[in-house]
Amino acid sequence: MSDCRRQWNREDELPVYLAGPITTGPNQRKSYGMFTSAEGACDSTTKDYDNCAAGRRGTRTPRSFSRDRLLDYAENPVPEAASEASEQGKVCINGLLIRGGRVVNDDRSEFADVYVEHGLIKDVGVNLTVPDDVRVLEANGAMVIPGGIDVNTCLLKPHLGCPPVDDFFLGTKAALAGGTTMIIDHVVPQPGDSLLEAFERWQASADRKCCCDYSLHVDLPNWNAGVQDELEVLVQEKGINSFQVYMAYKDMFQMTDSQLYEAFSFLKDLGAVVMVHAENGDLIAQEQSKILSMGITGPEGHPLSRPEELEAEAVFRAITLGNRVNCPVYITKVMSKTAADTITQARRKGSVVFGEPITASLATDGSHYWSKNWAKAAAYVTSPPLSPDPTTPDHLHSLLACGDLQVVGSAHCAYSTSQKAIGKDNFTLIPEGTNGVEERMGFVWDKAVAMGKMDENQFVAVTSTNSAKIFNLYPRKGRIAVGSDADIVIWDPDRTKTITSKIQQSAVEYNIFEGMECRGGPVAVVSQGRVVYEEGEGLQVQQGSGRFIPRQAFPDHVYQRIRTRNKVKGRQGVTRGMYDGPVYDVPAMPKYITPSPSAKTSPTSHQPPPIRNLHQSNFSLSGAQLDDNVPRRSGHRIVAPPGGRSNITSLG
Amino acid sequence: MAERKLLPRDNDEGSLLSKLGTDSPKPRVKFGGMFCNVEGAFENKTLNFDSYNSSPQSARRHVKTKNEEKCWSDTFSDADSVSNFSAASERFPRQASTCSGRSTFPGLLSFKLADRLIIKGGKVVNDDQSFYADIYVEDGIIKQIGENLIVPGGVKTVDAYGHMVIPGGIDVNTSLQAPQLGMCPADDFYHGTRAALAGGTTMIIDHVVPEPGASLLGAYDQWRDLGDRRSCCDYSLHMDITRWHDGLFEELESLVKDKGVNSFLIFMSYKDKFQSSDSQMYEMFSIIRDLGAIAQVHAENGDIIDEEQKRLLELGITGPEGHVLCHPEEVETEAVYRAITIAKQANCPLYITKVMSKSAADVIAKARKKGMVVYGEPITASLGTDGSHHWSKNWAKAAAFVMSPPINPDPSTPEYLSSLLSCGDLQVTASGNSTFSTAQKAVGKDNFTLIPEGTNGIEERLAVVWEKAVATGKMDENEFVAVTSTNAAKLFNLYPRKGRIAVGSDADIVIWNPKETRTLSATTHTLTVEINIFEGMEVRGAPVVVISQGKIVLEDGKLDVTEGSGRFVPRKAYPDYVYKRIKARSRMADARGVPRGNYDGPVHDVISMTKSVPATPTSRMPQFPGKGPLGPARNLHQSGFTLSGTQIDDHIPRRSAQRIVAPPGGRTNITTLS
């Protein structure tokens, strides 16, 4: 993390163009947004072009900056693409000019060309001077946006031992097809497994199969001292800065509030982002057994046993814990209106909390659980469940547009129908997960931007930039700027496409968005500087080309506020003279030591009342007091028999 | 519900007053409320005065009253749990019936003159309306209400001119005998109820706090014994469930059905001592609902508190201010929210004890707007003072404020809570009275977690509510009666015996002088505790005369109580006020499954998969000591899935269309299924 700090502090060495966006952080939008007051608006156009030009002509610092960064990550497998690119002869092949597009970042849009070399963006501006033999991609006035970042996928998460049908290859292929150029996948160790081993297993699998850059979250299946050591290693050596804890899945992953408190405190000290799967697992377990006993075994039992109140309750609790610990909380999979509202309210009160709706909650609703077709109903099973309220997607989009929710994930975890059928007689066994990695960008455009709720800049923010900031990938990812990775999408807002499982990349048989029409889609996708998708030519992905992107701890976007609050919120006791009045002699202090470590267990055995050990009392009335020398004490001395009930009202 | 049936009969008689005692919760809308619509408003006045003035009628009315009295006892006897009710309060129905046997009131009733009173000239204030009338009390029961009452001679007259006559307060949250760290509170049943009477409260409901793991019935008997011997006013009991296990079900059942307890307190706080987990709460709520009782919760997140306590002690903060710091408002709010969520799932009525903060009150108000059956109880301390005193330099004073949830340091809290109380978002005021002497509090002088928790408030409650809400114009006198007495009586099924001035109700009456001003202080209060947390607060409104069970216990500033005169008042299950909605909802709430043909597609073979996972699921089991089986059963030999054989719905025609011939475990595109 210290390296990270140092780099940011060197901002004066950075090109003028980059210096601003990096450091101003979340507020840039205001300074360049289209609703700024007159002066800013007039200035910015001229100024910016100047700056761009300066950056181009000026020092080579942008490159050295990124070199630095690459060196930092040298312990990671150097991607073939990048290494090839570094060979002098192939520069031209990798050179790529995106011409005639409108570059859309989260803060502003401008007409500019983008020149890409060595997998990095070399130049942004008009009338760029580039080598002659570069490949040219004509944008024809379409939008050029930073590639999407999908921060929630589970491409290797086993359910009852079987992995999803979409593995890292199929999943990332689908991601690229949809305009997403980076994923952050969840490492899900089973309770008792080593986190490091699980991490390595995931990384190995992803390195072999991924077609786009990826990073990893690690889920904490349980909390104990061993986990803490592993967490330190993961954060400080492995480049992981986000961990998921579970409030659901009783007897599997669920943690008690005490454990959550400890985990939050520990992760905060490490500078990580705490992600929470927020559902009240205790109540779910109760409801599940109730509903099974009522004879409901189909997928409709899933939403019935996980009503949206339980999600909202857990979100509320997670935020409370986060506030107490002063730790940033990231709520994964916001599926219902009430949960989203809870997050909104907490943000109004100043909590550092982020909410992530997913493709499924943004595009469809939970009424399908009652479908007569078992396979269809089961395909929708995910946790928290899709809310049966059909107005949910609209509401979530509105909150996304106004910034109350920040990030769009997909929670892509696709199981085949035969895998889902494991739970054909018991909905609690249905593997949980829906598709969505491919459709994510499209639906946000269709339901929010095309409807006028959101502008294109906010679209870039929620699909890419915000997640890059929260998870400390910014400005390498999530922005089209000189020095950033060349993960670029050319987006056509007018393209219309009907979602169907027949033309999708994912291997899952049942697409939950089947038949939905979607405006907006990628015309071309550039990942690591290579064109991987171009309309008419199809996908050209290379298995294993994805690099692992390590992430530094203490992301600024999240931790700046936390750090300040830490300083401000020091607690102090009251200095007062020692109490010297009579002290009641406590006869017996019955010590209850609840045998089980977690209060969440239900002790069914009748515990006998503990025996009172009268010798345990350590209260004493005799002996000198610490403050015998304090003068005010004499005035307060009360001669009263110990243990007697004497009226010492004069004390007050 | 039984009272409802009486209404038609009453109507024939045309007297307004006969309805007073019997009409259930909503007379306000019907008769004489100031917002009632036209016809009622006009009729009312004439009718009223008529029935009050015509003296020949009053004799007749008296007979009617007696009829009604009969019905009253019928009311009790046709309900299901009569036996215990009349047994426990045998005095009341039997004497009532003997009285109604006599045709008139001849002066020859010479015995027990002290038991007969007439309260003259006061303004009778109920929760629905106020009117001027005299009240005649005999044998601890209100016999007549009206003007120019005909009463036997030699009856003691209580002058209430210029004052208000209100039903005695009901304090639904006291812990007069609950030990902490083995210490009993400084004010026990005797001192506590004495103070209650001095402040205008004529009934308390005390919490029975059994040792965790001990028998509830045993603790109940202990409390009953103490209460019967020591209490000076009527009392009833809540039962606290300090540690839940399945074996408690029979005890709960017997408490509800035989012992007259219809409310149970559950703790979400006090980790490793009283705290219940969410699962346990759900189980308890379900049982409590089935028994027709009310679930109360002490709402604080014990897990967080426990962690924060450790942290603060590590920081070296040991004084009473640590108590507030480790019980932040959010922790209360969170627990209230969770309790409401769980209660909603279990469809159980919920009562939040001790609402101490603005945000907790807001959560309750919001939940009520969404239709939850939830009630909130601010207490004297949260209405009358704030928690800034925890930082007092005087340790003894700071420690006196320690209670859980803590008194909020935000000084605007009392105003806010009294506003919510006025608009009906909060319903009941209580005191949470549990006092410990300074010497007892000093047990925690070096560690705030050991300070016994509890403040005074039983005596000051009515005055504080009057001062904060009525005197400031937030609520009217009728609402005052509602929040201090009537709502509590309705919630806990004491209505209309308590909480109302009506013919047939218990004669628990307070004559309230709204103009008197006094200063609260430890030197003048009735409790024995040395420090009064309201020290120096000036309040308007004070009881002039307090009548409990028909006897004057406070007059001319003098208390005259009899130890052991308090009766245990049993409460029946299924209070109407609470359970009408719950009953309707449980009829509606049945979830139904979707009837669909059996899935007959390929099913992934689970067995082969588990081999790829190094750690077998069963080896994980010991990670969770004391846990039941895993949610999804992973023993693959138990799997009941099969693809062969006849299906239940073989006869359903649409099934054949869905049959898919596909190898099990194969990845087949069955999108055509839809």
Automatic annotation (TrEMBL), chain A:
Pfam families in alphabetical order: Amidohydro_1
Ranges of Polar residues composition bias in the record: 614-623
Coiled coil, from the record: none
Region (Disordered): 591-652
GO MF term list: hydrolase activity, acting on carbon-nitrogen (but not peptide) bonds, in cyclic amides
Amidohydrolase-related domain ranges (all copies): 167-532
InterPro entries linked to this entry: Amidohydro-rel, Hydantoinase/dihydroPyrase, Metal-dep_hydrolase_composite, Metal_Hydrolase, Metallo-dep_Hydrolases_sf
GO cellular component: cytosol
Low complexity compositional bias, start-end: 594-605
Family that this chain belongs to: Belongs to the metallo-dependent hydrolases superfamily. Hydantoinase/dihydropyrimidinase family.
UniProt cross-references to NCBIfam families, sorted A to Z: D-hydantoinase
Name assigned to this protein: Amidohydrolase-related domain-containing protein
Species whose genome carries this gene: Esox lucius
Gene that this sequence comes from: CRMP1
Automatic annotation (TrEMBL), chain B:
Family: Belongs to the metallo-dependent hydrolases superfamily. Hydantoinase/dihydropyrimidinase family.
InterPro entries, per the entry: Amidohydro-rel, Hydantoinase/dihydroPyrase, Metal-dep_hydrolase_composite, Metal_Hydrolase, Metallo-dep_Hydrolases_sf
GO MF assignments: hydrolase activity, acting on carbon-nitrogen (but not peptide) bonds, in cyclic amides
Protein name per UniProt: Dihydropyrimidinase-related protein 2
Coiled coil: none
SUPFAM superfamilies in alphabetical order: Composite domain of metallo-dependent hydrolases (SSF51338), Metallo-dependent hydrolases (SSF51556)
GO cellular component, one term: cytosol
The Amidohydrolase-related domain, residue ranges: 164-553
Region (Disordered): 1-23, 655-674
UniProt keyword annotations, A-Z: Cytoplasm, Developmental protein, Differentiation, Neurogenesis, Phosphoprotein
Xref: Pfam families: Amidohydro_1
Ranges annotated as biased composition (Basic and acidic residues): 1-12
Xref: Gene3D superfamilies: Metal-dependent hydrolases (3.20.20.140), Urease, subunit C, domain 1 (2.30.40.10)
Gene Ontology BP terms: cell differentiation; nervous system development
Localization: Cytoplasm
